Every structure is written in structure tokens, then in C-alpha cells.
């Protein structure tokens, strides 16, 4: 093993999740697989072809570099949509490769029209509306200029979509704000349509909105965290379970992060473990040294708190998590050997280490922990 840890991605779990999500949205709503943040840490190069095999034909990314990786990775043609960063010089590449993209500023819309005219193509744009997130999007006054520009460049710009993004659909405390955003979106959409610009697709829903606000499904949903087997928040999960007789979680997690025992160390009672004096052995102990530390995405905040699985048993992290190694207590786990499998995240036997447990211990959100997994950890698709 040339790397100190590796990640397994379960194809059967992904198929389960996609089947469930498509069932939830119905046959007439487009499912877009959001793979920003290196496919939420799962790896674009490994995840995207697998998702395509599972029936996905539409992908959403944040930036042009992610779109380029995706274009080079997919074995078959699919729709690629850039939701965020795209320099105007990169517009030429996107338009030539029939990549769709969000437009939330007038200069991007004008540049897209000019480039499309130059190459005799039509730029496929998704007009993003500012409805209350206050991040990106045309507000009501700027929308008038966008409409005027669309009037002038119908021949070279195709209004593929009109979209917005909700400011926290995963939390009930944002409920009124989300309802206001829905109203603002519908008002601005109606104004666009009355001005002669009807999009092919209307889309507003992320994973949380798909569950909590089914009226936002419209023509397409942009699903990120749920396809990987995680709920956007405990509130979202409770709402779904509360509405169904079957209380079993319908999602399966794709990811298992594994390493091996690098070495075993006997530590006498009273000795300190690792840097500083944060942990003093309360008895004679046996520690397993695991070659993963904070440089590999295992947070230093998990020092003296985190847990791993060895031989299907939980082993607690003792001492400070180092840059490249950490120590775990295997005193009460019989017959632990060098090279034994260590599960940092995922399932071993009847036990599991969840992303949620990481978050509770280190204050990291599901999203943050997953996307911080370094891209140079090898990822393998299994089953």
C-alpha cells in the first residue's frame, strides 16, 4: 500500500440512493447530481462515471476546473452545468464544449453572447435570480438590464434555465425566509415570461428543499449531500421519517475511509503519550499507531476524543493527533497485529463510525469534513 489510507466508494449504495431520490421527485423532474467540492470528498474521477452507470445524465459543478475534470472523466456524453466560478476567458471553452452555466452578472451574459456569435453557436445559460440569499443573482433592477440583453441576443443565447438558491432550507428557523424566496422567485419568473423569455427549466431545490418543500421540485432538482447517503440536517431527516410509516433510513452511505496499524507500542502506567501532556496513561497500555493525521483530513480537534474501528471494536484516540500519525488505545482488544485494518469512517463488523460523530466531536459539518478529505487519498469503487 503506497498510501497510508484509502477510501472505498460503494456503487450499490449509490444506486440505492439515486433510485430513492428519483422516486421522491417523480419521473418528470430532472435529477442533477451535484459534484462540487471533489464530489463532496468522494472524488470526481471515481464518483461521476459510477453515477452515470447508475442512471445519472446531468451533473452540476461549481467551477470550470471541475467541469473540465468531469468532461475528461465521463465515458459518455452528459449535461454539465457550472453553477459558480467561470472567468469570462473560460466562457469560450464552455460554449465550444456545450457546457451550460449560471449567469448572475450582466457582463457574463454580454460576453457569452459575443463569444457564441463569434463561433456560430448558442450559449446555454441559466439566469440566476436574487431572491433573498444575497450572494449571487440578478435583483429586480438588474433583471431589467438582463431582459434587455436577452432581447438583443436571442439568436446566440438560449435561456436554458432560471434558478435561485435557498438560504438554509435544512433548518426550520429559516422557514419564513424560504417562503419569501419562493414568492420572489415566482414573481421574477412571471416577469421574465411576460417579457417573452420562458426558460426550458425552472430549478430552485437542493437536497433539503427537495424533502422539506416539495413544491420547489419544478423542472429540475440539484441534489448534493443526499446522493452520498447523508441528510442535510437532523431536522430534515426527522421530517422525512415523521411522514412515513417505515422508520428505516432509506439512504446508504457510500464512503469507507480505511488505514492499517503501522506499529504497536507498549506504554507503562503514568507515562505521557505523544506531544505535550494532554494524555497520561492510567494503566499499562497497548497503543496502535495509525499513519493518518491532520494532514490527511483527520482533525486535530479529535485529539483524545475520536474513535476508530479495529477488529470490529471501537478504539479511542489518545494524545494529540499529529500531522501524519495518531495513537489509539487497543489495550482491551485481543490480538491486534501490525497491518490490521483500521476504519476511520464507515463500517466494520457491526459497528460504524459516522460523519455525524466526527462533527459532534470536532464541530465540523458533514459537508466540511467530507470535502476536506485530501484529493490524493486513493479512492476505489467497490461492489
Write the layout of secondary structure elements.
Elements: E1 5-10, H1 11-25, E2 30-34, H2 36-40, H3 44-53, E3 58-61, H4 64-73, E4 79-82, H5 88-96, E5 100-103, H6 106-119, E6 123-128, H7 140-152, E7 157-163, H8 175-194, E8 201-205, H9 207-212, E9 220-223, H10 234-242, E10 255-260, E11 263-267, E12 285-290, E13 307-310, E14 313-318, E15 326-329, E16 341-348, E17 351-353, H11 355-362, H12 366-371, E18 379-382
Parallel strand pairs: 1-18, 2-3, 2-9, 3-4, 4-5, 5-6, 6-7, 7-8, 8-9
Antiparallel strand pairs: 1-10, 10-16, 11-12, 12-15, 13-14, 13-16, 14-15, 16-17
Helix pairs in contact: 3-4, 5-6
Describe this structure in words.
The chain is of the alpha/beta class and 383 residues long. It has 2 domains: 11-242, TIM Barrel; 255-353, Lyase, Ornithine Decarboxylase, Chain A, domain 1 (Beta Barrel), CATH 2.40.37.10. Helix content is 33%, strand content 24%. The strands form 2 sheets. Strands 1, 10, 11, 12, 13, 14, 15, 16, 17 and 18 form a 10-stranded mixed β-sheet that branches. Strands 2-3-4-5-6-7-8-9 form an 8-stranded parallel beta barrel. Strand 7, helix 8 (175-194) and strand 8 form a beta-alpha-beta unit. Helix 3 crosses helix 4 (64-73) and helix 5 (88-96) crosses helix 6 (106-119). The longest helix has 20 residues, at 175-194.
List keywords for this structure.
single chain, 383 residues, alpha/beta, TIM Barrel, Lyase, Ornithine Decarboxylase, Chain A, domain 1, 2 domains, 8-stranded parallel beta barrel, 12 helices, 24% strand, elongated
